[in-house]
Design goal:
Largest sheet: 8 strands, mixed
Number of helices: 9
Number of strands: 18
Number of domains: 2
CATH topology of the largest domain: Rossmann fold
């Protein structure tokens, strides 16, 4: 029987409803999971590690490092890993961990739920059973298991607050679908090299989301000395206002003067940023802005945080950012 380490970080799945008048939600210890889901013991030999109990909105890069280190230190002792995590920032943490691990040879499966495990109609049991089952398979991905689908972690984004199908992978097919059988279709293959772990993230970046009426010049004073990169969440294929008081161009020029790395992402979740399509995009490219391709905003942000921590040279960061590191984007083929 495969040995699986279940790592607890908190979230809705880790809550239980108190049987008193206040109805507050409390943390559910991981070692009590089999009380609610006795089927787990038939799937794998599961051991639990409670790292912390956090609402996922409180997760930060220090927690990503703690989680990555916990997996690294237990890597040889287990066949796979399941991470219990709140849904709100699960895609950020899964993306971050995907960049931490190079040459991953074992599954790291994130799961959670929309309702606490102790609620009768909860989706927690099904998600956890599926996640543990996936963690026993020869599957070398950091993935999210939710609602009978396995999605690449750095391709996933949360799209629903109230539906059990909380996540989607807008620009990459599901890695596996779970029905009567589990069909793995699009997973990465092992490289054959030893796993390496680089758990470090820099917070020296800024994300600027455009909206009609924004005056980007107001944000120039926020470009402090510790800002090394800016990710702009633009419109469509990377479009933005380029004339008058609402022009983004003075902001881009201020970034260029300060040697701040600039990336253009999109508020549209499907398809890729193309800076050649419109005149504003071509201006941005001339000012040194690069495209995030078809990455999710979660992947675009965590990839940059990872690279800022690994490299000091802007050229190394730029070279690595436009390359596919962990399956997080579709390669751009140029003629």
């Amino acid at each position: 029987m495969k040995r699986i380490l279940l790592l607890q970080t908190g979230g809705t799945i880790a809550m239980q409803i108190r049987r008193d008048a206040d109805g507050r939600l409390n943390n559910l210890p991981s070692d009590s999971l089999e009380k609610y889901i006795p089927e787990l013991s038939a799937i794998a030999d599961i051991e639990c590690l409670d790292l912390f109990f956090k609402d996922s909105s409180d997760m930060n890069p220090n927690d990503w490092v703690t989680l990555a280190r916990a997996i690294e230190s237990n890597y040889d002792a287990y066949d796979g890993f399941v991470v219990l995590h709140g849904t709100d920032t699960m895609a950020y943490t899964a993306s971050a961990l995907s960049f931490c691990f190079k040459n991953l040879t074992k599954p790291v499966i994130f799961t959670g739920s929309q309702l606490p495990l102790s609620v009768i109609r909860s989706d927690a049991g099904r998600n956890l059973i599926n996640a543990v089952q996936m963690a026993t398979l020869p599957f070398c991905e950091v993935a999210i298991c939710f609602s009978d689908k396995i999605l690449r972690g750095n391709r996933s984004t949360k799209v629903s607050i109230g539906d059990f199908t909380a996540f989607t992978s807008p620009n990459h097919p599901a890695l596996a679908e779970i029905g009567i059988d589990i069909h793995v279709k699009h997973a990465l293959r092992p490289s054959g090299n030893a796993m390496e772990c680089y758990p470090a993230f820099s917070e020296e970046l800024m994300v600027l989301q455009l909206f009609p009426g924004i005056k980007p010049a107001r944000y120039i004073p926020l470009l402090a000395e510790q800002t090394r990169a800016v990710i702009i969440s633009g419109y469509g294929s990377g479009n933005f206002p380029s004339s008058g008081d609402y022009s983004l161009i003075p902001f881009l020029e201020a970034c260029m003067e300060r040697n701040i790395f600039m990336v253009m992402a999109s508020q549209a979740v499907f398809d890729a940023v193309d800076l050649e399509k419109y005149s504003s995009g071509r201006i941005a490219r001339e000012l040194g802005v690069i495209s995030s391709g078809d990455m999710t905003i979660e992947a675009a942000v965590t990839k940059m945080m990872y690279l800022l921590a690994r490299y000091s040279s802007p050229y190394q960061i730029r070279d690595a950012y436009v390359r596919v590191l962990r399956g997080e984007m579709t390669p751009v083929h140029t003629s």
